[in-house]
Design brief:
- The protein is mainly beta.
- The protein has a single domain, classed as Sandwich (Jelly Rolls).
- Helix content is 12%, strand content 36%.
- The chain has a 7-stranded antiparallel sheet with strand order 8-5-10-3-2-1-11, with helices on one face. Strands 7-6-9 form a 3-stranded antiparallel sheet, with no helix packed on it.
- The longest helix has 13 residues.
- The chain is globular, with a radius of gyration of 15 Å.
- The chain starts with 20 loop residues before the first strand and ends in a 7-residue tail after the last strand.
Length: 167
């Protein structure tokens, strides 16, 4: 499938609705647009659709920067010691080593493109996610065992959770 979307000159085109999708928990749909495999490890791009109430626990990436381009909706963003509201059309960057989180506290879906630099952390989504074969129906909520597995995978991908998920 990857070869079908790459032209001879290296240009990649991934149409709306295209790309492999996984559910993270029962509130976030992650679709892979570009992976480190595609970019020689320079960066990865995933689309994250956050349902109402979605958002990861506060965490710190020790190896990657994240750049969020919020396409739809609104997110409350924790950036170190401050919180701000990001609205559709905004961009925010979280440098590695920064405690951060986001939450969709609205009744609407939020949709963002997440750039991961350098690539690699997209592997967390790949390993922690549940294949999204039915995009209209999220999986059941994660169990305590699922949350513990995500915590362990986070460590594998140089991510620290100061307060364990679900704890």
């Amino acid at each position: 499938m990857r070869e079908e979307r790459r032209a001879e000159n290296g240009v990649t085109y991934v149409a709306l609705g295209q790309g492999k999708s996984v559910w993270i928990g029962d509130r976030e749909l992650v679709t892979f647009k570009e992976t480190g495999e595609d970019t020689d490890g320079l960066f990865a791009v995933v689309e994250v659709v956050g349902l109402p109430g979605s958002g990861p626990p506060p965490h710190i990436h020790h190896r990657v920067d994240e750049v969020y381009c919020l396409l739809e909706g609104e997110l409350e963003v924790l950036d170190g010691g401050r919180t701000f509201t990001a609205e559709a059309g905004s961009l925010f960057r979280i440098p590695k080593g920064t405690l951060h989180a986001w939450k969709n506290g609205t009744n609407e879906t939020a949709r963002t493109l997440l750039f991961i630099c350098p690539a690699g952390f997209e592997g967390f989504f790949e390993e922690a996610g549940v294949p999204a074969t039915d995009l209209s129906s999220p999986p059941p909520p994660p169990t305590q065992k699922d949350l513990q597995r995500m915590l362990e995978l986070g460590r594998k991908y140089d991510t620290e959770y100061p307060s364990p998920p679900g704890g």
